[in-house]
Design goal:
alpha/beta, globular
């Protein structure tokens, strides 16, 4: 039987039902609804943890809210990355929880300067897409030399120069141990990997350093599950991740897709605990092939990464650092992991476009990510320095927000008050979208500012501002 989400009533029955408000909600039922929607955490209810009377209920709540795919936490002193923690097979059934983490490799045969250059590229990789900043997540450090001193030196160099959590990669337990020994305690890396030949030694290291352990058995699912079962039940290593192998070529790609799908199906639909771990994919493996030139391998790496992200890979290990290889991955990840129940929204507030001054126009828009992104792009193309007031319309576009009473004068006033915008400029004139013309009076009443109704399409903002937002117009509206 597949995982079934608990109902708010089932959750409410196990809460203290005191309506104390310590969770920030008005009552326990509201908290229960948020728990069911995964919009808050049990830890936000202090009485559950502080009062021994609720100990048994807390345990039941944890079981009801536990995902079929275990969540694994990787840490550096400055960042935390979670992989796994998934509940459903199909996105529309709920939503996917933790976006697929993308790791880029370095290895201990690289020169110091090359490693530092790759770290800098990884740290600086950023792409803004519909108001969201898309980035990479992890650095995988591979042992190529099989020299534990060389590997430890490389791990130390990377740890000192990155903010990202790490993956330590070698099938030699001595190499992994050397890498862990030089890491500060604030790090919690993934160690990769236990195999049929080294699982006992790797398990001992994972327990001693309290780090998660990857299990690798390329092309042999039976062995993969057998090792995971032994590690968890006999050796007490519960933070595991599974790598069933990443192949291309005749039969290879179809096997890979089927293997990832089968493991996630068994975890979520059959609740088979031995498959209930995050899945690791290694598109980097295309670089070990003899055939194909560099461009072919980069293409295949991008294709494999994108396909396996769709087929439940919770972590990708990549080699290519070129933007055209990584952009499809981060954009597709963004699409997969947005909540299908909610419009994509950006935070409300005031943005500076270009270098606005005290006489620059103030333009109002909604926080629907696509609307915000288009308005921002149109202003930048027109080379307009402006203040952009983004109001919280709950992710709705302007026309829908006006009809639904989400684009109101009070919401505009809230942003102006919170940002102290009136102290930064010397006029009180707002330019609102043409589609919001019907609420212009409401905005003037709520803010005390004068309103100019702008064009219906933001692509016309440049010409509109040049024609309508003149010095004489400002003086006319300011009197």
């Amino acid at each position: 039987m597949p995982w079934q989400p608990p109902t708010p009533i089932q959750i409410y029955q196990l809460l203290p039902k005191t309506n104390c408000g310590k969770c920030g909600e008005l009552n326990c039922m509201a908290f229960a609804v948020k728990l069911v929607n995964f919009e808050t955490l049990l830890e936000q209810c202090p009485p559950l943890f502080e009062d021994s009377r609720y100990k048994e209920d807390l345990q039941k709540l944890r079981m009801m809210l536990s995902p079929p795919v275990k969540e694994i936490v990787l840490k550096s002193p400055k960042k935390t990355v979670k992989i796994g923690g998934e509940y459903v097979l199909h996105r529309h059934e709920l939503r996917y929880i933790n976006p697929t983490a993308i790791a880029i490799d370095v290895d201990d045969s690289m020169d110091r300067d090359i490693i530092l250059q790759r770290i800098e590229k990884i740290e600086k990789f950023e792409y803004e897409y519909v108001g969201q900043r898309l980035r990479l997540d992890l650095i995988a450090i591979r042992s190529v030399s099989n020299d534990y001193k060389q590997y430890a030196k490389t791990v130390q160099l990377v740890a000192e120069n990155t903010t990202y959590p790490l993956i330590l990669c070698s099938v030699n337990p001595s190499i992994i141990e050397a890498g862990l020994n030089v890491l500060p305690q604030e790090h919690r890396p993934l160690i990769y990997a236990a195999t049929k030949d080294n699982w006992r030694e790797m398990a001992e290291i994972a327990r001693r350093f309290d780090v998660p352990l990857a299990v690798s058995s390329p092309g042999d699912l039976e062995m993969l599950v057998s090792i995971a079962k032994t590690l968890s039940e006999e050796l007490g290593v519960n933070d595991l991740a599974l790598d069933p192998g990443t192949f291309i070529g005749v039969g290879g790609l179809s096997y890979t897709i089927k293997a990832y799908t089968w493991l996630r199906y068994k975890a979520v639909q059959d609740l088979w605990k031995y498959a209930g771990y995050p899945l690791i994919s290694t598109p980097i493996s295309v670089w070990s092939l003899d055939e194909g030139d560099i461009m072919d391998k980069m293409w295949w790496e991008a294709i494999l990464g994108t396909m396996l992200m769709t087929r439940y890979a919770d972590l990708l290990i990549m080699h290519s650092i070129e933007g055209w290889v990584l952009l499809p991955l981060v954009i597709w990840r963004f699409q997969l992991y947005t909540d299908p129940r909610k419009p994509v929204a950006v935070p409300s507030g005031v943005r500076e476009v270009g270098k606005p001054n005290e006489f620059s126009p103030v333009i109002v828009t909604s926080n629907y990510a696509l609307t915000y992104s288009i308005v921002l792009s149109d202003l930048e193309k027109a080379k307009i320095n402006a203040w952009l007031v983004v109001i919280d319309t709950e992710g709705l576009a302007v026309d829908v927000a006006v009809a639904g009473r989400k684009f109101t004068g009070e919401k505009v006033a809230e942003v102006i008050r919170a940002s102290n915008l009136d102290k930064k400029i010397k006029h009180k004139i707002l330019i609102i979208p043409g589609k919001a013309a019907r609420v212009s009076g409401d905005i003037e009443d709520s803010t005390g500012w004068r309103v100019i109704v702008g064009p219906m399409d933001s692509s016309e903002l440049g010409k509109f501002i040049e024609k309508e937002f003149t010095e004489s117009k400002i003086q006319e509206l300011s009197t």
